[in-house]
Amino acid sequence: MKHAVLVAAMFLGMGAAVAAPAPVEDIASGSSDERIARLERILKAKQQGEFEMQRRVDALQREVLDLRGVTEQQNYQLNQVLQRQRQLYEDIANLSTKPTPAANSTVATDPVSVAASSSTLGETASYEAAVNLVLKDRKYDDAIPAFRNFIKQYPQSSYAANANYWLGQLLFNKGENAEAKTAFSTVVSQFADSNKRGDSLVKLGMIAEKDNDIPGAKALYQKVLKDYPNSASARLAQQQLSAING
């Protein structure tokens, strides 16, 4: 990309030279004062041309940096969407491959009813119902007890890390930071291999900021940068650190 900027700058410089060529003068004739004056005019014209070229290069570099920032932000948002979709597809695939008990061929959709079931089908359906309350129905207050019931019923589920993260996010959005902190801390301490651990560390850092624990927030963001470099979580952590440092 730097090479592209330099090439563009060269063309811009050539354009500037064509548009405003340096004056051509015979510096050999005339008195010494006249020759010096002509040299000074030529030097001044050259310096102005170089200044104009540098100004245009700087403008191009700023545009490239702005475009890079927009691209990174869009990539982060796209990764978040794809991650949510991938999780939902996995949930649906798992649900469709599980055998339905003969005594009950209809799966309950109410989160509380589903959480009461101890079967594998009940586990998947319970999690899916809680997620759908967020993504499809936008019933955020109803989703909180649904995720709590799921976590209580299936604490060792393969969906437990995600369920705790969802619960923490919903509570965080409501400003219930103490309970949100508990949910995010559960992901960090109990699910080291979860793809939600980095995001949970970032959210814990944000909660620390809200609690005016700036050193604690910085430590959490730096941990994300160390443990999950080049990830979407790391980019968000870096943004938070930059905002703190001003």
UniProtKB/TrEMBL annotation:
<keyword id="KW-0132">Cell division</keyword>
<dbReference type="GO" id="GO:0070206">
    <property type="term" value="P:protein trimerization"/>
</dbReference>
<dbReference type="InterPro" id="IPR032519">
    <property type="entry name" value="YbgF_tri"/>
</dbReference>
<dbReference type="InterPro" id="IPR014162">
    <property type="entry name" value="CpoB_C"/>
</dbReference>
<dbReference type="InterPro" id="IPR019734">
    <property type="entry name" value="TPR_rpt"/>
</dbReference>
<comment type="similarity">
    <text>Belongs to the CpoB family.</text>
</comment>
<dbReference type="Pfam" id="PF16331">
    <property type="entry name" value="TolA_bind_tri"/>
</dbReference>
<dbReference type="GO" id="GO:0030288">
    <property type="term" value="C:outer membrane-bounded periplasmic space"/>
</dbReference>
<keyword id="KW-0732">Signal</keyword>
<dbReference type="GO" id="GO:0043093">
    <property type="term" value="P:FtsZ-dependent cytokinesis"/>
</dbReference>
<feature type="signal peptide">
    <location>
        <begin position="1"/>
        <end position="19"/>
    </location>
</feature>
<dbReference type="Pfam" id="PF13432">
    <property type="entry name" value="TPR_16"/>
</dbReference>
<dbReference type="InterPro" id="IPR034706">
    <property type="entry name" value="CpoB"/>
</dbReference>
<comment type="function">
    <text>Mediates coordination of peptidoglycan synthesis and outer membrane constriction during cell division.</text>
</comment>
<keyword id="KW-0131">Cell cycle</keyword>
<dbReference type="InterPro" id="IPR011990">
    <property type="entry name" value="TPR-like_helical_dom_sf"/>
</dbReference>
<feature type="domain" description="YbgF trimerisation">
    <location>
        <begin position="32"/>
        <end position="104"/>
    </location>
</feature>
<protein>
    <recommendedName>
        <fullName>Cell division coordinator CpoB</fullName>
    </recommendedName>
</protein>
<dbReference type="Pfam" id="PF13174">
    <property type="entry name" value="TPR_6"/>
</dbReference>
<keyword id="KW-0574">Periplasm</keyword>
